[in-house]
C-alpha cells in the first residue's frame, strides 16, 4: 500500500490584509483536515494540530483573546470562531470597496489574472447580488484594451461578465499572435538579408526599398547604385558632384509655419525639438531657407539642405546618409538624445554622424547630424547657422506691426476658382504648329472598321463633342489620307484615337 505525505497549509499571516489571509487559511485548513482524516480524531488532537499549523504569531494572537478559556483552547471549532471574529472585525468595508474601485489592469497582467484579482477583491466588499455586474463594470473600466472597451460599450443589449471576458481574451490572444508573426517575420528578414549589389547594405531583396533606388552615383553619374558598387573603372574626381534635391514630404515635418524651440525631459533622456520654420507674410505664403551645402567626403557632393532656425539639432535620414557617403553600411555614433517633431511625436534616432561641410566655398565646419529613419531632406540647426554666419539676426530689426489678411483654407472650390483657366477647355499651348507631309510617302485609305453595338451611341456622342470643341472637323470631300479609328472604353470615359501604323 502506497503511503504519501500531505503537507500542512502555510502559517497564518497576521500582517497586511488579515481578513483575506484568514479566509485563505481557514479554507486551506478545512482541506487539510479532510485530506488527512484529522476530523476522525479527538478534538484535543485537532486543536493541537491547528495550533502547530497556524504559526507562532497566530498563537500569540489566540493567547491574547480574553474570550477563550483554557478549556476552549482544546476545541478547534471554538479556536477558529474566536480567531475569525478577531481578524474579520479588522476589515474596513469602505476601504475594501475603494481598493476594488481603483483596481486597474497592470502592464504585464493577463485578462484571466485581472479577473481573478477582481473576484478576490470583491469577496471582502459584500456586494451580494450585484457582485457579477460590479466586477463586469470594473473590468471594462480598468482594462488596458481601449479598443475592445469601446466595442463592448457599443453592444446592445449590454453584455454580461462572461461576454466581456471572452471578448477581452480574444483580443489579447489576437495581439499575442500578431507579435509572434512580427517576430517570425523579423527573423525571416534577418535570415534573408544579404549585401545588396546596388547600395552595399544588408537588407532583404526589394529593389523599391533599396537606399540606392533612384539615387545618382557620384562616380559614373548613372542612377540606381552607389559609388561603392559602381562598375565604372576609369574615373577621376573632378570636383563636387551635382546637387541632390529632396522634395518628398514625410509626416513629422510641417509644410511651413512657426516652430517652437524647447527642450523637455523624458525618462531622464534629452529630447530635442526639430521642426521646419517658415517666413510669415501677409498672404500666408511660406518659404524656406534652402541652400546648397558641400559635404566634404570622397566625392564631395552638393546637397540641398534646409537652414532651420527653429531646430536645436541637425538631422537627416539614413537614406540621405548612405547617398552622401555611397560606401555601403555605415557605423553610427551614439545619438545625442530623442527628437520631438512639430506634431508632438517623439522619435529615437538611429545614431549620429559628423560631416565636414561648407557653404559657397566658404570656411569648413564640423556638424553632427542625428540620423533618422525617415526625413525629407537634411536640416541644420539654428545655432550652427548663426555661428557660421549663414543666417544673421540683427538686433536693430524689430517687428512693428503684423497685418493679417483673411485666409481661406485650401479646398476644391478654391482651386477651381483660383485656377479656372487650367480647368477650362483643352489647355492648348500658345502658337500654331505646321505639319508638312512628305510627298514621297504613299497615302493610305482604310475602309471603316466595325464598331461594337454597345459603343456606337457613346462613340457618336464623343465624335460630336470633339467636333464641337474644334479638335476634329467633318470631311465631306474625297481625301487621300484615311486612317482607322480606334475606340477604347475607359472606366470613366471613351477614348478615341487613330491607328496610323501603316
TrEMBL record:
Query: From the record, what ranges are coiled-coil?
Result: none
Tell me which UniProt keywords the record has, alphabetically: Metal-binding, Zinc, Zinc-finger
**Cited SUPFAM superfamilies:** DNA/RNA polymerases
- Single GO term (MF): zinc ion binding
Q: Where is the CCHC-type domain?
A: 217-232
| Transmembrane intervals | none
Cited InterPro entries: DNA/RNA_pol_sf, Retrovirus_Pol_polyprotein, Znf_CCHC
Q: Matching Pfam families, A to Z?
A: zf-CCHC
Superkingdom of origin: Eukaryota
Tell me the first and last residues of the signal peptide: none
What PANTHER family does its record include? CCHC-TYPE DOMAIN-CONTAINING PROTEIN, PROTEIN CBG26694
Kindly provide the name given to this protein in its UniProt entry: CCHC-type domain-containing protein
Please name the source species: Acropora cervicornis (Staghorn coral)
Q: What is the lineage of its organism?
A: Eukaryota, Metazoa, Cnidaria, Anthozoa, Hexacorallia
Amino acid at each position: 500500500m502506497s503511503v504519501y505525505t500531505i503537507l500542512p497549509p502555510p502559517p497564518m499571516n497576521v500582517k497586511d490584509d488579515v481578513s483575506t489571509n484568514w479566509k485563505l487559511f481557514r479554507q486551506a485548513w478545512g482541506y487539510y483536515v479532510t485530506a488527512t482524516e484529522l476530523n476522525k480524531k479527538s478534538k484535543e488532537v485537532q486543536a493541537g494540530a491547528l495550533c502547530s499549523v497556524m504559526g507562532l504569531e497566530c498563537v500569540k494572537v489566540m493567547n491574547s483573546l480574553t474570550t477563550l478559556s483554557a478549556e476552549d483552547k482544546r476545541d478547534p471549532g471554538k479556536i477558529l470562531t474566536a480567531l475569525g471574529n478577531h481578524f474579520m472585525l479588522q476589515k474596513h468595508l469602505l476601504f475594501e470597496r475603494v481598493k476594488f474601485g481603483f483596481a486597474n489592469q497592470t502592464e504585464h497582467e493577463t485578462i484571466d489574472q485581472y479577473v481573478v484579482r477582481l473576484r478576490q477583491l470583491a469577496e471582502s466588499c459584500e456586494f451580494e447580488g450585484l457582485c457579477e455586474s460590479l466586477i463586469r463594470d470594473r473590468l471594462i473600466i480598468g482594462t488596458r484594451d481601449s479598443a475592445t472597451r469601446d466595442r463592448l460599450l457599443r453592444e446592445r443589449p449590454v453584455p454580461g461578465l462572461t461576454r466581456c471576458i471572452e471578448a477581452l481574451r480574444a483580443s489579447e490572444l489576437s495581439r499575442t499572435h500578431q507579435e509572434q508573426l512580427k517576430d517570425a517575420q523579423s527573423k525571416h528578414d534577418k535570415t534573408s538579408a544579404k549585401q545588396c549589389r546596388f547600395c552595399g547594405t544588408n537588407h532583404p531583396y526589394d529593389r523599391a526599398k533599396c537606399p540606392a533606388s533612384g539615387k545618382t552615383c557620384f562616380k559614373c553619374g548613372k542612377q540606381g547604385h552607389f559609388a561603392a558598387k559602381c562598375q565604372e573603372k576609369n574615373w577621376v574626381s573632378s570636383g563636387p558632384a551635382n546637387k541632390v534635391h529632396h522634395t518628398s514630404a514625410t509626416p513629422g515635418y510641417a509644410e511651413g509655419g512657426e516652430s517652437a524651440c524647447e527642450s523637455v525631459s523624458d525618462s531622464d533622456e534629452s529630447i530635442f525639438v526639430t521642426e521646419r520654420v517658415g517666413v510669415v507674410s501677409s498672404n500666408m505664403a511660406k518659404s524656406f531657407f534652402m541652400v546648397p551645402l558641400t559635404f566634404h567626403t570622397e566625392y564631395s557632393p552638393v546637397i540641398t539642405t534646409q537652414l532651420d532656425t527653429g531646430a536645436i539639432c541637425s538631422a537627416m535620414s539614413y537614406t540621405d546618409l548612405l547617398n552622401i557617403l555611397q560606401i555601403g553600411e555605415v557605423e553610427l555614433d551614439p545619438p545625442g538624445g530623442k527628437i520631438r517633431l512639430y506634431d508632438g511625436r517623439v522619435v529615437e534616432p538611429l545614431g549620429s554622424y559628423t560631416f565636414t561641410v561648407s557653404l559657397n566655398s566658404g570656411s569648413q565646419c564640423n556638424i553632427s547630424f542625428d540620423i533618422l529613419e525617415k526625413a525629407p531632406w537634411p536640416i541644420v540647426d539654428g545655432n550652427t547657422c548663426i555661428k557660421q554666419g549663414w543666417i544673421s539676426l540683427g538686433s536693430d530689426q524689430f517687428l512693428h506691426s503684423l497685418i493679417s489678411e483673411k485666409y481661406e483654407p485650401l479646398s476644391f472650390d478654391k482651386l477651381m476658382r483660383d485656377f479656372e483657366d487650367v480647368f477650362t477647355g483643352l489647355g492648348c499651348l500658345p502658337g500654331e504648329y505646321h505639319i508638312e507631309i512628305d510627298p514621297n510617302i504613299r497615302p493610305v485609305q482604310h475602309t471603316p472598321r466595325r464598331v461594337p453595338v454597345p459603343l456606337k451611341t457613346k462613340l457618336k456622342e464623343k465624335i460630336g463633342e470633339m467636333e464641337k470643341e474644334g479638335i476634329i472637323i467633318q470631311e465631306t470631300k474625297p481625301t487621300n489620307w484615311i486612317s482607322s479609328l480606334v475606340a477604347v472604353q475607359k472606366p470613366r470615359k471613351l477614348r478615341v484615337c487613330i491607328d496610323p501604323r501603316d
